[in-house]
Amino acid sequence: MLHTFCSANGGCADGLSPYAGVIRDSAGNLYGTTQLGGAANLGVVYKLDTTGHETVLHSFTGGADGAGPTAGVIGDSGGNLYGTTGGGGVAGMGVVYKLDSTGQETVLYAFTGVDAGYEPNGVILDSAGNLYGTTTYGGNTSNCGNQFQAGCGMVYKLDTTVKLTVRYSFIGPVGGYPVGGVIRDSAGNLFGTTSRGGKQSNGVLFELKP
Predict the structure, then answer these.
(1) Which of 77, 92, 96, 150 pairs with 120 at a CA distance of 20 to 30 A?
(2) What pTM, to 2 d.p., does this model score?
(3) Contact 204, 197 (CB under 8 A)
């Protein structure tokens, strides 16, 4: 056992309810998130070193910085971490954030709902520094029919100028409500899953071409 959360004198400053997995750097340190716990009980980003010592890199406040991450983080060659929160941000609908090697957070994008999407899942990074991800809700509401008036979710790209482009808005019968992120191949194709849609309305595995 490397670390037990919420164990410090009965408090939860170190984090509570880790939903996502962890990543590992070249030195063997682990990085991840918890949905709850931290200073405001709205989740943390943490580092666990090779001795099992935990450091809270960021404790979410529920304001502009985000709240309640259920996805993990990814890292780049510069030691920066990237991730999403399901809540918080200027509209309370989630953010894409960056943490530098000192733990300083920058909100790259705050979701605003419906056409712009909300409740983002995890992100991936390409070699040019662009981020790709999904939102569980939002997107083009006309595509979703009567299933959910706020949209069935979308796939998006966030470029290095932090401009968000909707790559695909899900259509209810074809697929909808993704709760996981995407992966990308060398040709730029994206792959992921949705929790609804398909022939039996039980979800689909999709490929999205460039």
Answers:
(1) 77
(2) 0.93
(3) yes
